[in-house]
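Appendix B, example 12.
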Amino acid sequence: TPADAAALCRGQPAADPQVEAHAAAIRTITARAHLFELADRDAQIETLLLATLANPQDRDAARSYEALVSGNVALAGRVMIERTDLVVAVWDGKIANLPGGTGHTIISALEMGTPVLLIDPTAPQEWSILTRPEELGHPERNNAPDAVRQARLEATIRAAMVAQGWHSQGPRREQWRARSSFAFSLYRLIERVFGEGTLIPGRMRIEYEAPAAISTGSAAGLLAAAEAAPGADPLLVARLRGVLLPMFARADGIASRLSDAYRSGMCVNFVLAALAVIIGLAFYPFGLAQVKWVFASAELLLLAGILVITLAGSRLGWHRRWFEMRRVAEYLRHAPGLLLLGVSRPTGRWPRKGGRGHEA
C-alpha cells in the first residue's frame, strides 16, 4: 500500500506483516553486502513510486517511474564498470535490452573494454570469459576444455588487474629515506642554477616528508576539510590518515630519490662526454702531439666512467624503479580527493604498452 511504501522510504517498519517480512529479508541481505548507491534522484523516485501506488491506473506515472529507475540503475552500472577491472555477472541470457538490467550492464562493460566473467545461473559450472560484445552471440566459443578456459580466465584476470610491467613486490622492496643523497645532487644543482638563475645553489639535499608526519603536515588541510564535509565518513577519513596518505608520502619520497639518481647519472654522463671530447682534442692547440697518449688515456678513462655509470644505472634499474614508484605516487596523489567524492580508479586502467596511453 502507499502507506507501507511511504513508511519504508522513511526507514520505518511497514504496517503489513508480510510486507515488513519481505523488507526485513532484503535488509538482512544488504547488511552482508557492499552496496553502491546513487541517492541523487531518491526524492524524485520516491514521489513517482508513491504516485504509482496511489493510482495504479496512471500509466504515465508508471512509465515515468520505470524509466527513471532504469536510467538510475544504468548510470550506477556505468559508474561501477568505470571502477572495475573485471565484471562478474550472473545472467540467464534472456533479456539484454532493458536499461540497467544485467544484460544491458554486461554489454556496456564489453563496449567499454572491461572483460566479463559470465556465469549461467542454470548451469553455474558453465562459466565463460567475454572480452567483446560479439562473443555474446557465439556461445560455441565457450565449449573449450576446462584447462583452456581456466588458462584464459587467469590470463584475463592478470591482464585486467595488473598493469603491464608492474611487480607488486617492487614498491615493498624499496627503502624510504628521510633525505636525498648528496651523491645524486648534480641534477638539483643544475636545476637551481639554470632554473632559479643563481650561482649560489644553497643546500642540495632535500628533506622528504615522513609518512608518519604527512597527516599533520601537507595533508592537514585536506583531512580537516574531509572531516568538516557534510555527511563525512569518519572511517574513510581515518583510512586516509592512517593508510593512504602515508603510502603516498613513502612512494613520493622514494620516487624523488630514484629520480635524482637517474637524472644526476645522466647529467654526469653528459659532463663526462663533453670533457672527453675537449681533452681528446686539447693537445692540438697546445702543440703537445708528443704526449698525445696522455690525453687519449684521460679520454679513455672518462669514457670508461660513462660506461660504468650507465651500467650501474641499468643494473640497479634507476629508470624502471623511478617510473614504477612515480606511477604509484601519482595514483595515490589524487586518490584522497577522488575517494571523498566516491570515485576510485582501478589499477588496470593504468597505461599499457601497445594500446591507448602508450608508454614510451
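Residues 234-281 form the longest helix (48 residues). The two ends are 62 Å apart (CA to CA).
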